């Protein structure tokens, strides 16, 4: 996990970020039935090193409010949040989610001494990639066809997919929702928009309860800004959103020029890559994930060469012949 990914993961170690993320995705009925003030972090150190490197694993235990007239214990909901920073979807995600859920239940029993019956689980995959997520949403899509007599014994698992780009494109996200603000900042290449969004974040994170989250947001935004602006020198260290907003305001011209140049090149390459992928899919059928990733990460000269190869390429391999 890179520095930017690790910093992004830390954002969702704060209950306010998880609350606002769920506000963007859950039904109002389910969201309002959860007591976000009593959110408990669930230990996730049981995850294997290999899985931990591929997925930002975060788990929260949220109390469920009693229904009117219900004298029984309110119970809990366990939210399992998997952060995916890959450039393409993961076909095995339902299986990974199932394994993760089982291990989370073990952790609840051992570390938090939760008694039976176990709380329901909501596995959430937060995807920040630029291409649409294509993986099956449940285990049924991974298992071969079988006689009906065997179906009751098969593993069943489904996850809630949250695609950041799709949420932004759909619109309607609250202006002051913390998760939505971070999505917009991560996707924006306009310095003026950044300045406005950071100002909104400053206003939305006032108070001592937001102090740690404020610092986590600042750390991630600094890494994103450094990457977007392609500045010749590292940005000066700042610790709070207020300091970041001040830094952006001091030299807006330099930032704007750098972002404008980088944005033009990035937009041009992205358009060329998308066009080549559409042409390849039309001629050769579904595109393997590794090919999609290769095209999306290609340089301008590589895209030009592959586009010329495509004109008379008899096979997919011939498109990428040097």
TrEMBL record:
It holds the Pfam family Transposase_31. GO terms for biological process: DNA recombination. Residues 266-312 form the DUF4351 domain. Residues 5-169 form the Transposase (putative) YhgA-like domain. One of its GO terms (molecular function) is double-stranded DNA endonuclease activity. Coiled coil: none annotated. InterPro entries: DUF4351 (IPR025587), Rpn/YhgA-like_nuclease (IPR051699), Transposase_31 (IPR006842). This is Transposase. It comes from Castellaniella defragrans.
